[in-house]
Amino acid sequence: MTTILVVEDNPMNMELTVDLLESYGYEVMQAEDGSQALEVVEKNAFDLILLDMQLPKMDGLEVLEKFKEIENTKDTPVVALTAHAMRGDDKKFINAGCAGYISKPIDIHDFQQTVSSYVEN
């Protein structure tokens, strides 16, 4: 079964994202911040990581950098999630090592296709 880690500090966004992913048949684990995400990936392997870029304490780019150093996640596709989409952000996240970028609020009609495209690649 495909396993996805969602790193998101907003409880409503987390609930929506997890509910959608589970309804598509994915196994989902959660982390509320960067520190928790790093603990989770040390013990688990994932097929995809959805990473909020505006996390408390350690932002998404810092977490992404650390993922690249961990054996379990160095080759795992990471997709940036952000509510503050500015022009050029997509390039910034891709250049930092993200496989892609999803703007929040999530478009529930496109979300399944978007996620499956990253999992299948």
Helices, strands, pairings?
Blueprint: E1 3-7, H1 11-23, E2 27-31, H2 34-43, E3 48-52, H3 60-67, E4 78-82, H4 89-96, E5 100-103, H5 108-120
Parallel strand pairs: 1-2, 1-3, 3-4, 4-5
Helix pairs in contact: 2-3
Q: How many helices? A: 5
Low-confidence stretches: none
Number of domains: 1
Let me know the largest β-sheet.
5 strands, parallel
Going by CATH, what is the homologous superfamily? Response regulator
Q: CATH class, please?
A: Alpha Beta
Instruction: Write down how many β-strands occur, each being a DSSP E stretch of 2 or more residues.
Output: 5
Over the alpha carbons, how many angstroms does the gyration radius reach? 13 Å
- For the biggest β-sheet, the strand order reads 2-1-3-4-5
Shape: globular
The CATH architecture assignment turns out to be 3-Layer(aba) Sandwich
How does the helix and strand content classify structurally? alpha/beta
